Here is the input.
Amino acid sequence: MKKIPDKSRRGEKGMAMVITLMLLFLGGVMIAPLLSYTGTGLLIGKEVDEKRMTELYAADSGIEDGIWKIMNEQIPATQPYPLVVNDKPVNVSMVLVDSTDEADTYEITSVATSDDGSTTTIVSYVEFMPTDISFLGDNGITSPGDVTLKPGTEVNGDVQYNGELDYDPDKSDINGDITDETITDWPDADYLAGIYQDDVSAAFSVPDGYEIDVDGYTEDNPYLIPPLYGEGSMEINGSGVAQLDGTIYIAGDSSNFNVMPGVTLIMNNQAIFSEGDINFQPNCSSIGSGAIIAVGDINYQPNILGDDYVFIMSVEGNVHMQPNGVFAGAIAGDSVDLWPGTVLQYKDPDDGDINFPFGGLHVKTWEINVQ
Here is the structure.
């Protein structure tokens, strides 16, 4: 039987070529305006981002101006008051929302507006403490009582005390001014406790004897410790890494906060406050800036990793220092002992953004709203 040629298949080959050429033509026609549209969109997005950023900076400057006025007692009689920042009008208002013997709490609102009517609003609640304890950060060691430096210790900073200074200049070094001067503004326990109780007013409450096991956690994946109110002693244990994500408050004058051997604690600019004692045991480690405050005694013997600013204070007890590594920051205590091998390198509080009211001001919240 004679085979009939398949003409339809030959025709399809020619049609495919035609369709391909048409698609290439249409693509060439469309790609230029499409790229132009995309480029225009990117430029518009960049302009919007830049506008939002300048609004944010302007509103942030308004908050800073309000804080300055509160600290310098120059609150305008008329509220809100106007500013111009980055060529943008900013309205700032300050409202006293709470007043106690310890602090005045203000709500500061700053609204920055652009020409097209868009706004960025920042609302911040700040506590202003009339008691000025900024002097606690002025020295390497500050004490209304005795300061003892064991042989083999080194203090690179000023020492102010009001009791006895026990050290042998031939065996220990103080590279700074030594002042025997009465300290009249030493803060009491209730004052500092009130500040840190506010931090944990909405925090988890945990029972006496509460333990946090950080075994297996790493610096890249640390155990995150939220704000906590401990109704008694608390302990961090295990071989691993923990990071503070808020204030820890330990209640009870006989309670202890313990960081056990094997634990690495990232302070993360946070504060630990104990109505009792605080112990950083030998062979634990500490990273990052933070504040460590106890009404009772502080025993501080960790491995120090880095040179971040740390402030340590015992309000009514003794600070016992024997860390492994250079301690960078400042120490305040009713009495202070530095044991052999301790090296204290004084740093200004501005070198660490920590939760301690050196300047009499405590920023509680900072919320941003864009419209």
Q: What stands out?
A: Residues 6-11, 37-46 have pLDDT under 50 and may be disordered. The first strand starts at residue 81 and ends at 85.
